[in-house]
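Before the break, one more example. Copy the sequence into your notebook; we will annotate it together after we see the structure.
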Amino acid sequence: MYQVLDEIKDIFVGMGFEILEDREVELAEYNFTKLNVEEGHPAREWSDTFYFTEDSSILLRTQTSPMQIHAMETRELPIRILAPGRVYRKDEATPRTRPCSTRSRAWPSTRHYDGGSQGTLNEVVRQLYGEHTVTRFRPHHFPFTEPSCEMDIQCHKCHGAGCPTCKGEGWIEVLGAGMIHPKVLEGCGIDSTVYSGWAFGMGLERLALGHFKISDLRLIFENDAASSNSSNIPRESGEPLSAISFAGCCAALALLARLHPERCFFWRACRHKKRNLIVTS
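Here is what the structure looks like once it is written out:
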């Protein structure tokens, strides 16, 4: 997975983007409110998000978009950044999803929109998968972009015919994108009548599926040597495939124990949902 991340970084650095890294424990204000995700939105429920405090003010980030909010509040415009990192959501472990995943988010802001978003995304995908990769864009909705879309690539296993990897659809969704919502810009003190920009977010795990022709995302994180040897998953000699996900969970739990040793809500959630958080078989 980190091999895919390094390739993506190289592609965006070549396009003039700056790589930005930041905290994984975030304020709800930056993870939700400043991204136009209001109170009452399903994404803010305790069933979908790992909170540290009873008032739902501190959490493990569910997206890397808060890094762009911090950047827009502190940096001079225009900005052109790529923000990769781990995110945490209450997702079931399936062939295409994980509760602890790695996302990359790009956020170029300019005085005049140049209409280059679709061409940039197509170029990124083609550099990752090859010149003949088939893509499509579909209208969608995100609270922090308007208008919004999702980008799909043709399934690498069935080439559009339909199979379990693509749920019979022939396509795999790899990213969401759109024009930055004026409310998001104004919330960061940016005049939306002068500046505009576009943003997109992609899941590295799904990109790795197509890049290495893997049929099941769970193979990346499991210690099954037979499965990993029979797939195209790259690995260092002697390094277990689950090391990344296990280390991330341990780091989060250690931080929580320091913050709230007497009220460890997330620890209870981990104990209750441990089979969803760390899958070993």
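Residues 243-259 form the longest helix (17 residues). The first strand starts at residue 18 and ends at 19. Try to locate both features in your own notes.
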